[in-house]
Amino acid sequence: MTTSNKVAWIGLGKLGLPMAARIAAAGTPVQGFDLSAERMVLAEQVGITAHLSLATAVEGCRLVFVSIPDDRALLGLHLGPDGLVEAMAPGSVLIETSTVSIEASARVAEAADARGIAYLRSPVSGNPVAAESGTLSAMVSGPREALEEAVPVMAAFTKAQYWLGDAEQARYAKLAINLMIAVSAGMMGEALAMARKGNIGWEAMLDLMADSAVGSPMVKYKTQPLKDRDFTATFSAAQMAKDLDLILGCAHADGVAVPLAAQMREAYSSLIGTGHGEDDYIATIHHTERLSGLPAFESATGARE
Fold first, then answer.
1. Which of 77, 183, 207, 246 is 20 to 30 A from residue 285's alpha carbon, by CA?
2. In terms of domains, do 58 and 129 share one?
3. Other CB atoms within 10 Å distance of the CB of residue 140
4. Domain 6-phosphogluconate dehydrogenase NADP-binding spans what residues (predicted)?
């Protein structure tokens, strides 16, 4: 067991890097590792010490954070003789922040337990902008005493840490939240299509939605990009499709009826098939407008999409 105050961060992608950078900026030394040389260079520029191997990145670190894209990356990173679990010291704490399946997470939990490592499932709700501002929310399950130890570091990139239980509860919670986000995106698409058919001004309807009973933080956050018809991805349609696959798999395994999830998965399949897979997930607007026979959007300046 190590008593050093430095931490390791494995996976320096769009979410991982700003989260790790917040920790470094708060004064905690961060040792980072990523398979991308470009991301390692970016990490060095924000005060993270880049390492060329997992073993050296986690050396001397009691807290090890992970941010990776999917189940395949999760299992490939953590398991096996050269994996992260074997590289970590017994008695250390693994904090895994990704959106992955319950089954894959449970396999990591088993390996961590055998190694004597406390495993915190800690997916986060938010996007890279929230990561940069330190306002992510963490859904956490695993040993509560391990969370209490990690909170002072996690506070650098999260506004809240919700402990939900000692097993896979956090994974269920993250999938449930993302289901609500996907369905909300679909509802916004339909509502805005109705408004256009009714000759309501585009910006006027968006302002109304944001200021109405349905003006959730997500709606408010998307109001200005939608006014600008800016579909630059903070979380892409393809990524949402991946999460919906996880949601459907989880729900089917547990006997939960999720017809809205199935419908939204088909909507995102259509977006991907029509070239909008790398657009932001709110590009459900395109899908509904196309189905509704609406013409290409024309802004006040006369520009068309």
1. 246
2. yes
3. 26
4. 6-165
For residue 16, give Cα distances in angstroms to 48, 193, 205, 266.
12, 36, 35, 29
Phi and psi, residue 102, nearest 5°: -60, -40
Q: How far apart are CA 246 and CA 74, in angstroms?
A: 14
Q: How far apart are CA 89 and CA 289, in angstroms?
A: 54
Q: Which residues pair with 8 in a beta bridge?
A: 31, 64
Residue 63 CA to residue 4 CA, distance in Å, equals 9
Distance CA 62, CA 44 (A): 21
- Residue 228 vs residues 184, 203, 272, 293: alpha-carbon distances, Å: 19, 9, 22, 21
Mind listing the pLDDT tens digit for each residue in 27-36? Answer: 999 999 999 9
d(CA 193, CA 293): 10
Does 304 map to a domain? no
Task: List the structure tokens of 249.
Answer: 């798999």
pLDDT tens digits along 130-178? 999 999 999 999 999 999 999 999 999 999 999 999 999 999 999 999 9
* C-alpha to C-alpha distance for 45 and 38, rounded to whole angstroms: 11
Is residue 91 domain-shared with residue 202, that is, in the same domain? no
* Beta strand segments in 150-238, E: 158-165
This prediction has a pTM of: 0.91
Taking the mean position of all CA atoms in its chain, how far away is CA 212? 27
Beta strands in 83-157 (DSSP E): 93-96, 118-121, 124-125, 136-141
Domain span holding position 218: 172-291
**What's the pLDDT at 3?**
42
Instruction: List all residues 6 or more positions away from 95 whose beta carbon is below 8 Å from its beta carbon.
Output: 63, 64, 65, 66, 120, 122, 150, 154
Q: Which residues does the chain have with pLDDT short of 50?
A: 1-3, 299-303
Instruction: Judge whether 48 and 24 are in contact, CB under 8 Å.
Output: yes
